[in-house]
Amino acid sequence: MSKFQKGFSLVELAVVLAIIGILSMGALLTLSGQRDAVKVTDSKNRLLQIKKSLLSFELVNRYLPCPDINGDGDEDRTNGACSRSYGAAPYQDLGLTQLDVQDAYGVEIRYAVNSGATTLSNMQDVDHSASYFCQTGCDYTSTFVPFRLTTPPIAGNLGAGNYTICNNAAATCVTGLASDQHMADGLSVILVAYNANGRQLTPSCTGLSNRETENCDLDLLYWDYYVNKDLQNYYDDQILGISGYEIKQELLKNDATIFNTASNSNSNTQNNLLIAPPPPPTNPTNTVAGDYTGSSDYNPPNGNFDDSLKIDGNLDAALDLNNGDNELTVTGDQNYALVSGSGNDNLYIAGDAKSSISTGSGNDYLTILGNLSSVASVDMGANDDFFYIVGDVDGSVDLGSGDDTFRVDGDLNHTVYGGAGTDIIYVNKTPADWTSSGQASYLNGFERIRFNDGTAQDI
């Protein structure tokens, strides 16, 4: 009897090989995607490390370094000014390695500084954001810094030569774009990791998608987007900025008196004897990367729990931190109601306050680096509170009961109620300037006023 062995036909074998090929391709694509994800995370961590090192450098040296343009790891200056407004982060000056200032693909991370920093006179002007980088002809020591609290960006003045990042919803990225198309603006430092296609960058930025072209050219605009592998809209850049608010905050959280000596120019200092502003919150436990839009971003626990939150953007939804000793930093504008409940709270708003703020009872700190708008209000509640505002007061303020301190560097355009207790206001004016301003009529329930020349009088 004949015995036959039945095997695969050529057609069947071809089908099996095709299936194996498809599965293998899928596995390879998955592996490639995982590797890309790891590299994206690695690049992000390097950006964060550079940012942290820059702020640490500023804390020690009282100014920020210029870019490294020749690859030796040191900042490059010409006659005191930055030799160029973009280059690499000076890894030697920052205590880093050359690998630390490259992205995960080995491409140099761009370090761009305020475009005015290439001109020494801009650096020496405390009303210019280039003063953050001033090293020559500036008052910087362990006591002085070459800029002040009112150095741009501040409310209503983003500062000449600073950068804007358009967000992923923007159809175009051009000067004058509506603010809701911005992820961030008024940035004095930009860091960019170009990642996978970074080695193909040319001086003319050819062969890139529109968004990556914007991040390659040398204007003041950058464009954030999601990772996209489509050839027409390819994007894998990562961008991180540093604002003037963060530069000032880094100093304030380590020395709350650092700006008590104000400088109208870098060659003519004058004492400003106003009380030190409240210390900003430090080391938040929770961070919202971008605008706060609701409880899906962060949901405060009920009861007497201590919240510690930083919002890297605007407050775009109502937020109630409930009771407890709460800390909150908002790096943008406060556009919706903010409540911190009873407890000793510390609230820090880097932009404008545009809605109601209620701190409840407790010894509370409130800092607003922008303006208090006409539709906004502040109620500090009971106990001894400290409210500091850099900009103008156009909305209502009630300090409540207790011995309260109120410092305003801008103008009063609305009634401020001191309430019960002994309340003191500090104004950034001389007695003569205060009298001529006519703003005394806006004070109600204050017992004493102090001026920036160190004098004081009872009210």
From TrEMBL:
Keywords linked to the UniProt accession: Membrane, Transmembrane, Transmembrane helix
Could you identify this protein by its name?
Answer: Prepilin-type N-terminal cleavage/methylation domain-containing protein
Q: Which PROSITE patterns match?
A: PROKAR_NTER_METHYL (PS00409)
**Which Pfam family, any one, appears in the UniProt record?**
N_methyl
* Segments traversing the membrane: 7-31
In terms of superkingdom, the source organism counts as: Bacteria
For whether the record's keyword set contains Transmembrane, the answer is: yes
